[in-house]
């Protein structure tokens, strides 16, 4: 079977490595224009994507040439934060209070309704902390509107959360579902910095696992989906979902019996999903902006380097380190040591 992958970044690279291990053939393209996608579809049995800004209409146009997974409808919803939140509400998945913002007057009304602070976000194309402004005082509303108001917006109530988590699941065309252990995530300047799995946080785990299964079934989803959530005490609130393999699941390459990349490929090729359970206590550190020379000198068999081969640039994800340990305390000690080394 030949699989077409839209996007040739690090996620596409990791998918292609997993495909080779599974005996599947891949073709990767960086373009997402209709002609390029039509050419890809004519040469492949199934088409998937590694990023969320692929035009949905272009995917629908090739659906009669090749199967497209994850389904374009899931992508359409994920591309608009308003539609995404409406899906959460329909599935009775708790989320922060929010308002649709189409004018400065709407923003002032939202501040009155939600209280301060609020987070003003573009409905489309925001990622890694981009396309959003935190409004802490009423006087900041107009400058925030001036900055983002040319785009459709939403305003969200500020959540005083304890920590952030993600849960990743996969579903195949037969409706079989697997989920990986919940991952605790730490962000720096809006970009994922460190992930840890598994997380010992019942009943949060049960809630999160239930929510992702609801989404997978509601969307008649095929492939891997990641759901990001805020944890506040025993409550868990949905933030957003990604209809693709996800940065917070990179630890699964070494840290799970079957990685998110392998199960994504098994799902979209119509095969049986494999065991996603942890193979130890895993951690992941993103290498952002530069890969320090000290990384090459770590020399610890519990540490695995993934270098994406990208040109260094501030804010750019250039690679990641995965650590695998026999206990949570050993993992966390190792993560702290590595962080001191590479920062």
Structural account:
The structure is a single chain. The chain is α+β, with helices and mostly antiparallel strands and about 350 residues long. The chain folds into three domains: about 80 residues, Rossmann fold (3-Layer(aba) Sandwich), CATH 3.40.50; about 60 residues, ATP-grasp fold, A domain (Dna Ligase, domain 1, 2-Layer Sandwich); about 180 residues, ATP-grasp fold, B domain (D-amino Acid Aminotransferase, Chain A, domain 1, 2-Layer Sandwich), CATH 3.30.470.20. It contains eleven helices and 17 strands. The strands form three sheets. Strands 9, 10, 11, 12, 13, 14, 15, 16 and 17 form a nine-stranded antiparallel beta sheet that branches. Strands 2-1-3-4 form a four-stranded parallel beta sheet, sandwiched between helices. Helix 1 crosses helix 10. The mean pLDDT is about 95.
Question: What is this entry, summarized?
Answer:
The strands form 3 sheets. Strands 9, 10, 11, 12, 13, 14, 15, 16 and 17 form a 9-stranded antiparallel sheet that branches.
How are the SSEs placed, and which strands pair?
Elements: E1 2-6, H1 10-22, E2 25-29, H2 34-42, E3 46-49, H3 56-61, E4 67-68, H4 72-78, H5 81-90, E5 98-101, H6 104-114, E6 118-122, E7 132-135, H7 141-148, E8 153-157, E9 163-171, E10 177-179, E11 183-188, E12 191-197, H8 204-218, E13 223-232, E14 235-242, H9 252-255, H10 260-268, E15 281-288, E16 303-307, E17 317-325, H11 328-342
Helix pairs in contact: 1-10
């Amino acid at each position: 079977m030949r699989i077409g992958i839209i996007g040739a970044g690090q996620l596409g690279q990791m998918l292609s490595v997993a495909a080779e291990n599974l005996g599947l053939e891949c073709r990767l393209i960086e373009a997402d224009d209709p002609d390029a996608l039509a050419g890809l579809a004519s040469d492949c049995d199934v088409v998937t994507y590694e990023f969320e800004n692929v035009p949905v209409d272009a995917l629908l146009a090739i659906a009669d040439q090749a199967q497209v997974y994850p389904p374009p409808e899931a992508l359409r919803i994920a591309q608009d934060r308003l539609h995404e939140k409406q899906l959460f509400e329909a599935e009775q998945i708790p989320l922060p209070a929010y308002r649709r913002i189409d004018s400065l007057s709407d923003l002032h009304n939202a501040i009155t309704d939600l209280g301060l602070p609020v987070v003003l976000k573009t409905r489309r194309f925001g990622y890694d902390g981009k396309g959003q402004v935190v409004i802490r005082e009423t006087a900041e509303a107009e400058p925030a509107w001036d900055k983002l108001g040319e785009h459709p917006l939403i305003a969200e109530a500020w959540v005083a959360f304890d920590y952030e988590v993600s849960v990743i699941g996969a579903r195949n065309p037969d409706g079989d579902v697997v989920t990986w252990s919940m991952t605790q995530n730490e962000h720096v300047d809006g970009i994922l910095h460190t992930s840890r799995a598994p997380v010992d946080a019942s009943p949060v785990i049960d809630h999160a696992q239930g929510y992702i299964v609801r989404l997978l079934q509601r969307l008649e989803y095929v492939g891997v989906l990641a759901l990001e959530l805020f944890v506040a005490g025993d409550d868990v609130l949905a933030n957003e979902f990604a209809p693709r393999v996800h940065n917070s699941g990179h630890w699964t390459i070494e840290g799970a019996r079957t990685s998110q990349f392998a199960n994504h490929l098994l799902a979209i090729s119509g095969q049986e999903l494999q065991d996603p359970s942890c193979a130890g206590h895993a951690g992941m550190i993103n290498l952002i902006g530069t890969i320090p020379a000290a990384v090459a000198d770590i020399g610890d068999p519990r540490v695995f380097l993934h270098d994406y081969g990208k040109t260094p640039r501030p804010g750019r994800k250039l690679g990641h380190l995965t650590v695998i340990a026999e206990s949570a305390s050993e993992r966390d000690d190792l993560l702290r040591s590595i962080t001191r080394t590479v920062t």
